[in-house]
Amino acid sequence: MAIKTIEELENILSEPTPGVIETLGRLEGDIMVLGAGGKMGPTLTKMAKRASDAAGVKRRVMAASIFPSAKDKLGLQAAGIETIECDFLHPGQLNALPDAPNVVFMVGMKFGSSGAEGLTWAINAFLPGTVATKYRNSRIVAFSSGNIYEFGPVDSGGSSETDPIGPVGEYAMSVLGRERVLTHFSNSLKIPVALIRLNYAVELRYGVLVDIARKVYAGEPVDVANGYVNVIWQADANAMTLQAFEKAAVPPFVLNVSGPEFLSVCKVAEDYGDMMGKKPIIQGKENPDALLSNGSLGYQLYGKPKVTARQMMEWIADWVMRGGESIGKPTHFETRNGKF
Questions:
Q1: How many domains does the chain fold into?
Q2: Structural domain includes residue 57
Q3: What is d(CA 124, CA 171) in angstroms, rounded to the nearest whole number?
Q4: Closest by alpha carbon to 256, among 266, 271, 268, 244?
Q5: CA 159, 163, 165: angle at the middle one, nearest 5?
Q6: Nearest-angstrom CA–CA distance, 41 and 237
Q7: Residue range of the domain that includes 21
Q8: Any alpha helices (H) in 219-308, and if so which ranges?
Q9: Rounded alpha-carbon distances, angstroms, from residue 300 to 180, 294, 296, 303
Q10: CA-CA distance, 207 to 298, in Å (whole number)?
Q11: Burial of 118 by CB count in 10 Å (0-12 exposed, 13-18 middle, 19+ buried)?
């Protein structure tokens, strides 16, 4: 069944699983989401609120952000979530935030990082230290990225949490900086931390599968140089992230959050062509390696993602053909030099 409206989409993306409800039922204290105004923030925060309510737990669920979208801010407020406007690089504003025993740290910079390297490092590597100092008495679940891994053979099964790190480009290096800084403060201040290496979240308005669908529908070339990807439905990523509160540890617990299917970009484009009645334009040649994550640990802990890649593609194809809204932030999935 197709998803017809933004409201229906956001309801699906924020619906808690039984596992999330059970986890947040056991979790003690309020929840603060830092960076709640980004692509994933609104639905993750709403899921935390809905799961807490479903578990019968009375807690404050708070969302702090610069809130680039007033609509997202109002939507969070309508869901019973406290919103706080905050420029996290402003020490006074960060330190004025309410304390909370449970913190989701989502603040990061990727798109536009080329040409703004100083700001990228400030947000991705300096800020985590100030956040850790502010929330030294909290449990922190922090977003990282699968971009910090080495490119590997497409038949390798993907990088696991214990595999070598090999970030390409300043964005990926700055994200590794985020992990290293959080690890330092976790160890020195005894802060339980979980690091979420995401690769890559998808919904109907953004994501790798959306980028490919829109190119096929518009008759634009699809670059297959980075020939394979793995993705995860945003609701599944939200659910795994919130359940990781119970795995936060000293030193940090590391978790890949990604889908189990390794998708050929060329095949995805061809399948979209069949769905949309278009002939995809394939550009370039596949390389023998790609940036792929192995999500097995997450599946052992929380089960496999509920939404398959095929289901995502069917929803996205319908959405694109009906002129559905786009966030307008291409993922640059074809990028192999780390410049975003």
A1: 1
A2: yes
A3: 8
A4: 244
A5: 95
A6: 11
A7: 6-202+231-260+289-304
A8: 234-243, 265-276, 296-302
A9: 26, 12, 6, 6
A10: 21
A11: exposed
Q: How far is residue 137's CA from residue 118's CA, in Å, rounded to a whole number?
A: 29
* pLDDT averaged over every residue in the chain: 95
**CATH at 120:** 3.40.50.720
Token pair belonging to 170: 């300043």
| Per-residue model confidence as pLDDT tens digits over 99-115 | 999 999 999 987 666 77
Beta-bridge partner residues of 229: 263
Tokens standing for residue 135 = 């929330």
Q: d(Cα 117, Cα 53) in Å, to the nearest integer?
A: 41
What per-residue confidence (pLDDT) applies to 173?
A: 96
Is 226 inside a domain boundary? no
Q: Is residue 99 part of a domain?
A: yes
Q: Which two tokens stand for residue 288?
A: 């023998």
Phi and psi dihedrals of 6, rounded to 5?
-60, -40
Q: Tell me what pLDDT residue 112 has.
A: 63
Q: Are 205 and 5 in contact (CB under 8 A)?
A: no
Q: Which two tokens stand for residue 3?
A: 């998803």
Specify the pLDDT at position 340: 65
| 111/238: higher pLDDT | 238
Distance CA 147, CA 200 (A): 10
CA separation for the pair 256, 241 (Å, rounded): 10
The SS3 call for residue 14 is: coil
- Residue 334 domain flag: no
Measure the CA–CA gap between 332 and 17, rounded to whole angstroms.
31
> Which uninterrupted H or E stretch holds 172?
helix 169-189
What are the structure tokens assigned to 252, written together?
């940090």
In 169-201, which positions are buried (b, 16+ CB within 10 angstroms) versus exposed (e)? Answer: bbbbbbbbbbbebbbebbeeeebbbbbbbbbbb
What token pair was written down for 312? 């995502």
Spatial contact of 49 and 79, defined as CB atoms under 8 Å apart: yes
